[in-house]
Task: inverse folding
């Protein structure tokens, strides 16, 4: 993949936005050569919107009402992202499955963070799934998005040990700590033009 500098990120959120905050913090610290062009939330009450406002980042509330189907909603999302000249889309706790309309508009340029070591425990409640299964290790995965649920090529993963007395909350908190390190690291690789996708394999260039 050729260098995509300057990297203009569109961040899609639905909730608290701690991953958004981690990305903002790395950019403001000068450690991540990128800019957040816009934040888009499908939830008008998402705390992530307050974080965007605090850092003077343009934010758009984009609810699903008024669209006939998911593809139409996605077409409108693509429109917003293109108006902000976005070249990397980051799903930071965005709780909607993307259709081919979004995936084809940004080929190998949509990243998602998932709170498990994919392909284990895709979908909702990944931390609960890991605890119920009894695994000793879980973690987080940053991957490119395709039309499946958490199925796209893996970019980076971080491992977290599962403790005997872990609850969903304690495990989620330790995984989130890794998310906040791993997501900006993957975005940095992209912004430096150091990612090449070969089928299912993501090569990281020196
Ligand atoms: C994160 O833990 C992320 O891994 C998860 O939502 C949380 C959002 O937190 N995403 C998924 O489960 C997607 N399948 P945040 O709003 O504080 O960044």
Result:
């Amino acid at each position: 993949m050729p260098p995509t500098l300057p990297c203009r990120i569109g961040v899609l959120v639905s909730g608290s936005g701690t991953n958004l905050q981690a990305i903002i913090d790395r950019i403001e610290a000068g450690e991540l050569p990128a800019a957040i062009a816009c934040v888009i939330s499908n939830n008008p009450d998402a705390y992530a919107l307050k974080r965007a406002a605090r850092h003077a980042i343009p934010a758009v509330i984009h609810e699903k009402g008024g669209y006939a189907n998911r593809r139409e909603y996605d077409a409108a999302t693509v429109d917003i992202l293109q108006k902000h000249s976005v070249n990397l889309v980051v799903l930071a706790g965005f709780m909607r499955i993307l259709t081919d309309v979004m995936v084809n508009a940004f080929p190998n340029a949509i990243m998602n963070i998932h709170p498990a070591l994919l392909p284990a425990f895709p979908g909702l409640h990944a931390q609960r799934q890991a605890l119920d299964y009894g695994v000793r290790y879980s973690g987080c995965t940053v991957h490119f998005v395709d039309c499946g649920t958490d199925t796209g090529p893996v970019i980076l993963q971080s491992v977290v040990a599962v403790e005997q007395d872990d609850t969903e909350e304690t495990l989620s908190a330790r995984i989130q700590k890794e998310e906040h390190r791993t997501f900006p690291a993957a975005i940095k690789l992209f912004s430096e033009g150091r990612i090449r996708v070969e089928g299912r394999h993501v090569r990281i260039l020196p």
